[in-house]
Amino acid sequence: MSAISKKICLIGDFSVGKTSLIRRFIEGVFSDKYLTTIGIKVSRKLISLESSSQEIDFIIWDIEGHTKFKSIAPNYLKGAAGAIIVGDLSRQETLDHLQYHINLFLKVNPQGIAIVALNKCDLIEEAKLAKLTESNNFKANSQVINTIITSAKENTNVNKAFHELAENMLNN
């Protein structure tokens, strides 16, 4: 059986961990060295879905998060079936911008679906984590299929975010 190719985008403010999540998912590695993404970086990974014998060839677009590129970001988003919208749990302003990123993605891709990844949970106390999770829940939007707490550093729920997006894209 041949794999289905699907473009997905990782979207969010600068330094929220988009590249780290991708590297952890594709290569299984994490680096503390911050390398800013200029423009976009495209990666691929073939994944097998547990719910079926289907494989999805993810074409993953890592979209840079600096504000000077916001005007061209819609061009990068075109044709994406899904997105992982990333916020940094240790920086409230990045969480405040999540709805903007969701709206932008869905404006460009009205049939798309998204997962919100609240990243860097390893930097947050457990008591504060529950409050942040509750206040950054996007259940009201049916195209945001889940909000997942992640840590690229500790490999917390990284595969879950990508696989859940893949499963839902296949069923969508």
Search tags:
single chain, alpha/beta, Rossmann fold
Kindly name the structural category.
Answer: alpha/beta
CATH topology name: Rossmann fold
What's the helical proportion of residues? 25-40%
Taken in chain order, the helices and strands follow as: EHEEHEHHEHEH
Radius of gyration: 15 Å
The outline comes out as: globular
CATH superfamily: P-loop containing nucleotide triphosphate hydrolases
What's the number of structural domains?
1
Low-confidence stretches: none
CATH architectural group = 3-Layer(aba) Sandwich
In terms of DSSP E residues, the strand content is 25-35%
Most strands sheet = 6 strands, mixed
Count the beta strands: 6
Distance between the termini: 19 Å
Give the C-level CATH assignment.
Answer: Alpha Beta
Mean pLDDT: 89
Number of helices: 6
What's the quick description here?
Helix content is 32%, strand content 27%.
Overview of the molecule:
The longest helix has 14 residues, at 158-171. This protein is an alpha/beta fold and 172 residues long. It has one domain: P-loop containing nucleotide triphosphate hydrolases (Rossmann fold, 3-Layer(aba) Sandwich). Strand 5 (113-119), helix 5 and strand 6 (144-149) form a beta-alpha-beta unit. The mean pLDDT is 89. Strands 2-3-1-4-5-6 form a 6-stranded mixed beta sheet, with helices on both faces. The protein contains 6 helices and 6 strands, in the order E-H-E-E-H-E-H-H-E-H-E-H.
